[in-house]
Structures are given as C-alpha cells and as structure tokens.
Amino acid sequence: MNWTFFHRMASPKWFYDFSGRLLPxxxxxxxxxxxxxxxxxxxxxxxxxxxxxxxxxxFLHVPAASLALTIYSxxxxxxxxxxxxxxxxxxxxxxxxxxxxASFCALALITGAIWGKPTWGTWWxxxxxxxxxxxxxxxxxGLIALREAFDSRETAARACAILAMVGLVNLPIIKFSVEWWxxxxxxxxxxxxxxxxxxxxMLIPLLTSIAGFYxxxxxxxxxxxxxxxxxxxxxxxxxxxLLGANF
Amino acid sequence: xxxxxxxxxxTMGGHGLYVWTAYGLGLLVMVWNxxxxxxxxxxxxxxVGRRMRRERxxxxxxx
Lengths: 247, 63
Known about the structure:
- The complex is a heterodimer of chains A (247) and B (63).
- Chain A is an all-alpha fold and 247 residues long.
- Helices cover 76% and strands 0% of the residues of chain A.
- By secondary structure, chain B is mostly helical.
- Chain B has a domain at 20-62.
- The chains are: A mainly alpha (247), B mainly alpha (63).
C-alpha cells in the first residue's frame, strides 16, 4: 500500500490548501440544511399531542447532543493517532475540536433543561443521562484548561491526548445510560437499525437539522484549524508568503 | 405554516418562552463558533504582518 497520501494529508500546508477549496461548499450546504431543518421544525410541523409546542426544541437539542458525543469520539481518535505517530496536525485538530464540542455539549444541556421544565416539571435531575453528559462537559473544559496549563506544546499535546483517551470511557455510559438505568430521560427516538419511533413529518426535518449541524461543525472546524495552522506555522515561508502579501 | 398568525407563533400555546429561548441560544452558539476562528485568523495575520514590517525596517536600517 502506498502511504504517501497519508503523509501528504498530515502536512499542514497541504491541508490548508485542500480545506480552503472545501470550505465554501461545506459552508453553503450547512447553512442551507440548518435553515431548512430549523424553519421546518419550528413553523411547519404539527405540535406533539402530549408535549404541545415545547417539543420543537428537539430540532436543536438532538443535533447538539449527538454532536457533543460524535465530536468527542473524533477528538479522542485523532488524539490517539497524534499520540502514537506524533503528528502535529492531529494535535491541532484536537485543540480545535475541544471548544466546538464544549459549545454543543453546553447547548445540549441548556436546551435540555429548558425543555425539561415544561415537560418534566424540573430544569434538572441527577439521573444517569444528564449526569453523564455533565461529566462530558467537564471533560471538554478539562481538555481546554489542560492545554493552557503547559508551556511546552509537545507536553500539552501528550497530556491532552491521554485525558482524551481516558475520557472515552464516558461515551458508552452516556449512550446506554437510558437503558442501563431507570432515567427520566427517554430512550433513543431515532434508530439506525429498526423503526424510529417518530412520525415522518417530524423525523424528516429532524434529520435535515442533524445533517445541517454536522456540516456546520465541519465548517467551523475547518475555519478553526486553518487559523491554528497559520498560527503554528507562522515562521514558515509559505505562511509568510500568504499573509505577507496583505502587507 | 402550522401557526395561524404571528401571535400564536410567538406564544406557542404557552411554550413560546421556552422554545424561543432555546433557539436564541442555538443561534448564539453558532455565531460564536464562526466568530472565534475568524478573530483568531485576523490576530495571527496582524502579528505576522507586524513582524515582517519590523524585519524589513531593520534590514533597511542595516543597509
């Protein structure tokens, strides 16, 4: 097998150029899906027969919660790759994914609390699902804080990678918390295998919104890592050539 | 549209405050995620530009 593509991909300059071509398409697609998904869910779906209109928060809550988990898995896998092969770009990706994941995790927790008030009668309960997601939030904050705690970039990268890999234990706990324990939080509505327990007229805008938020995450991740590449490579000839042209 | 008029859209049968607050926060998170990298990029570009100008000035002074 030819591994040159792997090394080329891990080169910051190659990645910067490649992502620059991708960026406008991802951005437009993300914006389209998010606007369609949220407008549809907010204005054009019928209310839930039990929850009334409060259920419309689902079109925001589910994508945010799903992303909080997916971003963490991506972050941990990237951290492991960077840890083993000492790839600079992998550590840049880890540092960029942490704040994005933290923001979506916070959004999932807060929209969940807002949804919980009219539905459960309380903002917060210490049930297994809510508590394990709160731990995920602290893992994200921990990753951000840990990076700031080191002067050496290499040491910070190694410490963050180890924390990221250890924190992976929390993901199956979040995922199966609603099955293992008797939680106030409901089980999964969308199933990849088997039938989803949701009406089509609500499911389709939800899936559109999820797709939109995943694309949006890719978009802001690319924005972040491109800025980070310029930051860390600012002494190289290509970055100076690129940025120097403006001065 | 499901809602008959603007008023029912805003109040949402008593759930308006919950729903609209959630969507407002969602918008805030999205805007934050776009603004932070743009600001970072501008800061890096300004730093590099400043350093390059300084080096050029030093070079000219040495000549």
